Amino acid sequence: MTIQKSAEDYLEAMLMLKQKNGYIRSVDIAAHLGVTKPSVSYATKRLRENGFLTMDHSGFITLTETGMEIADRVYSRHKMLTEFFSLIGVSDEVAREDACKVEHDISEETFNAMSRYLEQNKG
Question: Is 47 exposed, middle or buried (0-12, 13-18, 19+ CB in 10 A)?
């Protein structure tokens, strides 16, 4: 399934907010991503239309199974890449920023090789 990078970023942010707060609201997504509320409204509408999330009458967002799979894949990549970059000496802040840039475009082969390397060279 092909999904735009921005949609992946929104889904990843939603997963992170769910893990942190126990719930997902549009206002929290806007604050987390540093975007406007109308941008979040537009994005959530598109994600809902594509079956990646649902929203209840109170405005709370729930990721569908498909949305959760995508969010989990992107967030897992983000965490591993951040850890890898930190291991090789990149500052924490830059490691997080670069992981966010790379997580969408890295090939499965390179990601898997980096994961194996990280496992072999931990602690």
Answer: buried
HSE value, Cβ hemisphere, 13 Å, CA-based, for 88:
11
Local structure of residue 107 (DSSP, 8 states): -
Which pTM value belongs to this model?
Answer: 0.87
pLDDT tens digits along 75-106: 999 999 999 999 999 999 999 999 999 988 89
| Cross-strand bridge partners of residue 62 | 54
Paired tokens of 30: 């806007």
Token pair recorded at residue 69: 């799979």
Phi-psi region of 60 (alpha: psi -120 to 50; beta: other; left: phi over 0): beta
- C-beta separation of 13 from 72 below 8 A: no
- The secondary structure element, H or E, covering residue 62 is strand 61-63
